[in-house]
Amino acid sequence: MDPLIAVEDGLVSGLDVIGEKYENDEIFLPELMMAANTFQTAMGVLEPEINEKGQKRAKKGVVVLGTVKGDIHKIGKDIVTLLFRTGGYEVHDLGEDVDLFTFVEMAKKVNADAIGLSALLTSTLPGQKDVIDALTQDGKREKYIIIVGGGATTPEWAENIGADLYAENAQSAVRKLAQMIENKG
Ligand code: B12
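A: This is the predicted complex of the input protein with cobalamin.
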C-alpha cells in the first residue's frame, strides 16, 4: 500500500472519528492525547517510506511553515512539511505556538517563497491574519505567497484575510503552491 494512502485513509480518518467523539463528550482529553501519540508512533514507521519515494527532486522553492500562536496542534502541519519536503521544497518548520515575529523574521532570513500558517482552533485563527497584517504594514506582503490551512481554516476565511492560497489537505497544498510559483515565474 502507498504509505501516503495509509496516512490519509487510515490514520487521519481515525483522528476524524476521535475528534467527533471528543466534540460529543463521548471521550475526553486523555483519549485525544492517546490518539495523537498513536498517530505519531505510526508516522515513525511510515515517514521514512514517504521520504524515500520523494528523494532526488530538484529544489522548487523555500517554505517557512508553522502552527500559529496559542495553538499546539502539530500533526497536520508535520504532514504538510513532509509532503513539501518530498515534493522538492526546502522547508523551515518553526514548530507550534509560533508568534508572528518569528514567521516574519525567518521568512526574511531564508528568503522564502512562501509562508504556511496552520491553525486548528477557532480561537487561534486570528494568528494567521496577524502575520499577513504585519507583512502588509512592513511593505513586504507581495514578497511571499501566503498559504493557510488546518482544521479551523476555511476558504472564506482565507479570502477574508487576504491569503493567497487555502488548501484542505497536504496534497492539495503541494499542488496549489507549485502552480502558483510556476505562474509567478
Ligand atoms: C489530535 C488533537 C489534539 C492533540 C494535538 C496533538 C499534537 N501534537 O498535534 C491534543 C490532545 C494536544 C489537542 C489539544 C487540544 N485540542 Co485538539 N484535536 C485533535 C484532533 C483529534 C485531531 C487533529 C489532527 O491532528 N488531525 C489530523 C491532521 C492530519 O489534520 P489537520 O491538522 O486538519 O491537517 C490537515 C489539513 O487541515 C491541512 N493542514 C494542516 N495545517 C496546514 C497548514 C497549511 C499551510 C496548509 C496549506 C494545510 C494544512 O493538511 C493536513 C494534512 O492533510 C482534532 C479533531 C479533528 N478531527 O481535527 C481536535 C481539535 C482540533 N482540538 C480541539 C480542541 C478544542 C482542543 C483543546 C482546546 C482541548 C482542551 N480542552 O484542552 C486543546 C488545545 C491545545 C492548544 N492550545 O492548541 C477542537 C477545536 C475546536 C475549534 N474549532 O476550535 C477539535 C476540532 C476537536 C473537537 N471536535 O472539538 N488536540
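The mean pLDDT is 92. Residues 12, 15-16, 18-19, 22-23, 29, 32-33, 36, 70-77, 79-80, 116-118, 120-123, 147-152, 167, 169-170, 173 surround cobalamin (CB under 6 Å).
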